[in-house]
Amino acid sequence: MAGFALLSCGDGIIKSTVDEWPASAVAALRYVFGLGGVALAVLLVEGRGALAVPRPWLQAARGAAVATTSFAFFMAIRSMPLAEATSIQFTSPMLTALLSVPLLGERAPRSAWIATGAAFVGVLIVLRPEVGRLGWAVGWPLLAALGMALLMIANRRAAGVASPLAMQYLIALFAAPILIALAAAGHVTGGEAMRVSMPDWSVISRCALVGGSATMAHLLIYMATVRASAAVVAPTIYVQLLTALAVGALAFGDRPEPVALLGALVIIGSGVYFWRSQQPRRTLPAA
Hints:
Number of domains: 1
Distance between the termini: 40 Å
Protein name: DMT family transporter
Organism: Sphingomonas baiyangensis
Helix content: over 70%
Largest sheet: none
Radius of gyration: 19 Å
Subcellular location: Membrane
Shape: globular
Membrane topology: Multi-pass membrane protein
Order of helices and strands: HHHHHHHHHHHHH
Transmembrane segments: 25-45, 57-76, 88-105, 112-128, 134-154, 166-189, 201-223, 230-252, 258-275
Structural class: mainly alpha
């Protein structure tokens, strides 16, 4: 929950840059900073040997998944409010639960399906008038959701091959060049809105800040997925909606309507139900 909440805080910082620099370039620079910071941390804490790349194809898959999520979501918040983009991305737990069956051979507990379904209803309540208005832009957060689902599944598959800190270095090692390539392609073919120029120092500092906070967020999410199944961890993503609503209201003046708050309450209720269902049952001592 802390990891997903931290991601929404970083998303709010990124949204503040959308009118100043292309989203593709922001995503690339954020991961360049993240890669530099986490590589230095690995070197200082674990030594040069920890910079090796175990199971490179799996690490490349993790990097591609997070690059897809970052690029697509940064594109999404260019054209819609933060809370709406976050809400649409909440199809990720449903995708995770579905994909973990063929890809990981896991069986999602019934409570995970109930909680995810209820939370998805809450998302629909939040979005109720917006889907038709947003049109094709809805595809960006949906693509981000697919990337997040694949990342959580790949994290589970990669469990134990390196330390949690080294795993964050590995994901940034592959995500950064992919995002740089996307930014370069956008500069060449994407029109004026995607053209990359020298940014203001404040944009660079915000990218550096998000690079650090997002690296910590993914570290927390990775630590969760190696301790429980991907389908069990996935519903905790809904805490992002609450954080996004708060950030949108405080930073951008996006005041949620009462119906949107009702949807948020449905999502909170589903999260509380799921959390309670995972607690160990207490048994009364024998008389």
